[in-house]
Amino acid sequence: MSKDDEARTVQLLDRILMRAVTEGVSDIHIEPRQSDVRVRFRIDGLLVERPSFPVAYRHKVASRLKVMANLDIAERRLPQDGTIRLRIQERELDVRLSTFPTEYGEKVVLRLLFQDRLGMGLDGLGLPQHIADQLREFASRAHGMVLVTGPTGSGKTSTLYGMLQETDARRRNIVTLEDPIEYRFKDVVQAQTNPRIGFTFAKGLRAMLRQDPDVIMVGEMRDAETADIAFKAALTGHLVLSTLHTSSAIETFVRLFDMGLERYVVASALNGMLAQRLVRKVCIHCRRLGVVTDDLKAAFEAEDIVLQEFYESAGCEHCNGTGYAGRTGLFELIIADDALKDLVKADTISRVDLAKRLFARGHHGLRREALLLVAQGITTMDEAYRVT
Description:
By secondary structure, the protein is an alpha/beta fold. It has helices at residues 3-22, 58-68, 129-140, 156-165, 201-208, 224-235, 249-258, 263-269, 294-301, 338-345, 351-360, 366-375, 381-387, and strands at 27-32, 36-43, 46-54, 80-88, 91-102, 105-114, 144-149, 174-178, 189-192, 215-218, 239-244, 270-282, 288-289, 311-312, 324-335. It has a seven-stranded mixed beta sheet, with helices on both faces. Strands 3-2-1-6-5-4 form a six-stranded antiparallel beta sheet. Strands 13-14 form a two-stranded antiparallel sheet.
């Protein structure tokens, strides 16, 4: 690569990264095609297209990023992963880089992790006050399991990090096992799995238990072996925080039992479960009133919500034509009290029965939380249905 090409490649990447930081992007997709290279930003959970660049720079851009991440620039046939530390607009950020070989060259995805977001704690995550207070209480306990559930990109890891910040790391030995480490804590021992050399979640968790931990954070319980070790650790005097990919808090029970965990182990170890989603907020500059029909009123009344008006998205210069600006959270918390533990231990109870019992105790799911945001003018019906 000539010096002129190198300089132009650096300038091109600088423009892309600067714009991404300005727009609050979580991921950058650089996708080579036959005639150009497409650039897309993930903003508020959805991909938005940005100006492409000439196909002549597809290899140059990928190589430049690989150099920054200390990867092998000669290897284009296999996927690679790495990390880049940057400072843009006075903000420190870690960039997780992933390459993937395609027909027209390597696709590159960059995940932007802003270090200044680490200081938000539970109060900066948009949690209702009663849920934030309950999570603090969980974080103060000496043992038990706390699970955060939801799809990829729903903010599960941020919630776990928020709980860690509520824990006194100077008096308690806190150890995390993650894939990968997203944010770094000063007084927390953090480790990253590496399956290529056999350092899996299960193997790492077994080793962590010999490190005299008080609090353990497992980035994700991906298999039955990891889940079994984690729950038994929660039973033997450790506070364990982890995540699962499930559609609701109730579905978490089904997933755990399907993984082969015994009912009494789950019931005895579990402190609580938090299901969460991120929902886009309707742009206040271009939102417009929707038509409140009788059927729509009835749907809200079924959830014990009075609907007087709601907004639809439109699109303007303030929201880049998307109709939405920013995101907020939807949260569903189930506290594993003695009555619920007894229910879970019963072999005869089904998922439907469990849902009915919880509903009778005043528990409502994520759909109702989404409809409440619609009735409050925070989001739209389309968005509520999309995430729930």
